[in-house]
Amino acid sequence: MSQFWKPGAEKPRLVDDEEGGVLFFSSPSGYANIERQRQRLPVYKYRTSILYLVETHATTIIVGETGSGKTTQIPQYLKEAGWADGGRVIACTQPRRLAVQSVASRVAEEMGVKLGEEVGYTIRFEDVTNTGVTMIKFLTDGVLLREMMNDPLLTKYSVIMIDEAHERSISTDILLGLLKKIQRRRPELRLIISSATIQAKSMSDFFQTSKTRRRPEGEELGPNMESAVLSVEGRGFNVQIHYVEEPVPDYLRAAVSTVLLIHEKEPMGDILVFLTGQDDIDAAVQLITEEDQNRGRKSSGLMVLPLYSGLPRSEQELVFTPTPRGKRKVVISTNIAETSITLEGVVYVVDSGFSKQRFYNPITDIENLVVAPISKASARQRTGRAGRVRPGKCYRLYTEEYFAKEMSAEGIPEIQRSNLVPCVIQLKALGIDNILGFDWPASPSSEAMVRALEVLYSLGVLDDDAKLTSPTGFQIAEIPLDPMISKMMLASGQLGCSEEMITIAATLSIQSIWVSGWGSQKELDEAKLNFAAAEGDHVSFLNVYKGFLQSGKSSQWCHKNFVNYQAMKKVLEIREQLRRTAQRIGIVLKSCERDTVVVRKAITNGFFANACRLEASSHDGKYKTIRGSQEVYIHPSSVLFRVNPKWVLYHSLVSTDKQYMRNVISIDPSWLTEAAPHFYQHQRLKSMVH
Ligand code: ADP
Ligand code: MG
C-alpha cells in the first residue's frame, strides 16, 4: 500500500484560481436543453471572434482547455456560418480513432441528425459518411493524409481543423507541413489549429515563416496570411493535488489502493485513473472489482470500467453514460482521457505518472512501445480532468520532488521518436522527394531517416534514386497498412497465398482477437492452445479464423473458445476491404490451402528486418536481433513461448522488464537472404547458421 495522503498532512495545490463554472450533465432531454448546454460552453462567448478570424485569416490557432467546446462546437459554428454550403465539407481531425467516433456521435446528437448523414466520420476501415450530404466530417489525421493521395489539394474541404495539435502525433506533424504547402495553392482554404496547451507560439511561428506571404497593401482579395491566435478562457474548478511521500514501487497496486481509499473516505463523485494500456487497465479493473467485493457489503456502488482505443463500441458507451444515482463510476483509462475526450462527472483523478509511448532507436533499428514517464504538461492536463463539474482532487502517484525536478516540461513530438518507414513512403507517394528538406514542425533525426530509406530500399519500395518503384512502391503505398504488412500481402500474391495473408493482415490490424476480463489466465491459455500452430502466431490466427467460419460465424463458438466475437466481425469487415484493395492493385487472390511454408515466406518478405536468432548458450529463451544484436524474448502470450525455435521473426516489440516479441513465427534463415539479399549479406548469415 502506498504511503501517501495522510489526512491532515495534505499539501493542496491550486491549479486554477478561477471561481465559478457550470454544473453540467449530459442529458438526452430535448433540443432546447441541448441548445442551452451549447451556449454555456466557454467557446460560445468567442463564437463571433472565431468566425471573424477564420473569415479573415488563412490560419487560426485556438488554444483552450479540454472540455471548453473546441471540438464539438467550432465545426458547428462553421457550418452555421455557411462554410459547408455548396457541397463543401468541414473537416476536423483527431489523432485517435476512439475520439473521432465519440465526438462525431456527440455532434450528430447535438444537431439532431443521424450519424453518417450531415455529420459523419471516417477512420481506417470504417467510413460513416455520405458524399454530398455530409457537411461536417471527423476523421483521424492519418485518414486525411491518405485522402491526399487521391486529392492532393484536398479540394472538397473548405475548412480543415487540425485538433489536438499539442499531442504532436506523427500524422499531425506531417499534415501541418503539407497543409502549409496546400495553402499556397489554395488561398480559399482555411486552417484551424486547435490545442489544449500553449504551444501556440511555436505553431504560429511555423505558419508564419518566410515562405508564407503577407497580404500586399491595398489588396482586397484573399485572407491575411499571418496566422491569428485566440485563447479561450477555461472555466475549470480548483483541484487539490496530493503527492505520495515516497516513490511507489508498483503504480498499478498503488492506483488500485488509492481508488479503494477514495471510495471509502471521499464524498460521491466519479474517479478517473490514468494507467498505460490494455494490460494494466484490465488488471486494475479486475483487482479493484475483486477487492471491492472482498470488503464485505454486497454492493458498494462501484462501477469499474476500462477505456482504451481497442475497446468494443458497447463498452465505450458505458463509459459515456451518466453515472446512475448512488453509484460511483471508476474509469480506468489510457491517456486518451487526457485531452481527446471529456468524461462528465469526474471529481477525482489518480495519475500513475506513466503512459505508453513509442520509442525508436535508429542505431538498433528497434521501435517499441514503452511505459515511460509523462511530462509536466501531461500531468497538468490529467489534473485538470478532476475540476470539470465541481472542485476536485488529484492524486499523483509520484513525489512532489519528482514532479518539480525530474519530469520534463513537454513531451517529445512523436516524429522524433518513431520509425519513419510509414511516414517516408507516404511523403514519397505524395511526390515529396526531398524529405529531409521538407518543412517539418519538428525535424526527424537524419539517422532515423537513413534507416527508413534503407528498409524501404530493401523492401523494393524505393529505387536507387530514392524514388517510388513502379509498380511495387506504388502498390505498397496504396494499401492502407504498415508498409511491411503491405509488402507481405504483395508477396503473397506471387507465392499463391493471398487469401491467407489477407486474413493475417486483418487480424494484425486489430488489438486482439481474444477476450479479456473474464475467465482466468489459465483458462484463456488453454483455449488458445486449441488453435496453437507449431509455426507460430500468424498461423494460429488462420486456425481461429477457420474455426470461426466453420462454426457459421457463431457468437456461441467465440464465447466457448475465449475468442472476441466483435473482434472477429471486425476481422471479416477489414478482410473484405483488403480483398477489394488487393484486387484493385492487381494482387491475384488465391489460397495455398494451408501450405504454411509459403505463408511464412510471404511474411518474411515483409518482416525480414525483424529476424532474431536464439542464443546458442541460452536456457532462458534469449534471442538476439540479427541486425542490431539486441536481446529480446518471446512474449508469454505467443504460442511459441517456451518453444523457442532457433530462428524467428516478430511483428512488434513491447518492452516491460525485458524486450518482448509479440506475434512470432519460426522461419528458415535461408528465406531471409531470398527475401532481402541487400539487407542480409549472404556470407554473414551463413556463418551464423553454423
Ligand atoms: P474540447 O474539444 O474543448 O476539449 P469538447 O467539444 O470535446 O471540448 O467538449 C465540450 C463539451 O461537450 C464537454 O464539456 C462535454 O460536456 C460535452 N461532450 C463532449 N462529448 C460528449 C459525449 N460523448 N457525451 C456527452 N457529452 C459530451
Ligand atoms: Mg477536443
Automatic annotation (TrEMBL):
<dbReference type="Pfam" id="PF21010">
    <property type="entry name" value="HA2_C"/>
</dbReference>
<dbReference type="GO" id="GO:0071013">
    <property type="term" value="C:catalytic step 2 spliceosome"/>
</dbReference>
<dbReference type="GO" id="GO:0003724">
    <property type="term" value="F:RNA helicase activity"/>
</dbReference>
<dbReference type="Pfam" id="PF07717">
    <property type="entry name" value="OB_NTP_bind"/>
</dbReference>
<dbReference type="InterPro" id="IPR049945">
    <property type="entry name" value="AAA_22"/>
</dbReference>
<dbReference type="InterPro" id="IPR001650">
    <property type="entry name" value="Helicase_C-like"/>
</dbReference>
<dbReference type="Pfam" id="PF00271">
    <property type="entry name" value="Helicase_C"/>
</dbReference>
<dbReference type="InterPro" id="IPR027417">
    <property type="entry name" value="P-loop_NTPase"/>
</dbReference>
<protein>
    <recommendedName>
        <fullName>RNA helicase</fullName>
        <ecNumber>3.6.4.13</ecNumber>
    </recommendedName>
</protein>
<dbReference type="InterPro" id="IPR014001">
    <property type="entry name" value="Helicase_ATP-bd"/>
</dbReference>
<dbReference type="InterPro" id="IPR007502">
    <property type="entry name" value="Helicase-assoc_dom"/>
</dbReference>
<dbReference type="Pfam" id="PF04408">
    <property type="entry name" value="WHD_HA2"/>
</dbReference>
<dbReference type="GO" id="GO:0004386">
    <property type="term" value="F:helicase activity"/>
</dbReference>
<dbReference type="GO" id="GO:0003723">
    <property type="term" value="F:RNA binding"/>
</dbReference>
<dbReference type="InterPro" id="IPR048333">
    <property type="entry name" value="HA2_WH"/>
</dbReference>
<dbReference type="InterPro" id="IPR011709">
    <property type="entry name" value="DEAD-box_helicase_OB_fold"/>
</dbReference>
<keyword id="KW-0547">Nucleotide-binding</keyword>
<keyword id="KW-0347">Helicase</keyword>
<dbReference type="InterPro" id="IPR002464">
    <property type="entry name" value="DNA/RNA_helicase_DEAH_CS"/>
</dbReference>
<dbReference type="GO" id="GO:0016887">
    <property type="term" value="F:ATP hydrolysis activity"/>
</dbReference>
<keyword id="KW-0378">Hydrolase</keyword>
<keyword id="KW-0067">ATP-binding</keyword>
<dbReference type="Pfam" id="PF13401">
    <property type="entry name" value="AAA_22"/>
</dbReference>
<dbReference type="GO" id="GO:0005524">
    <property type="term" value="F:ATP binding"/>
</dbReference>
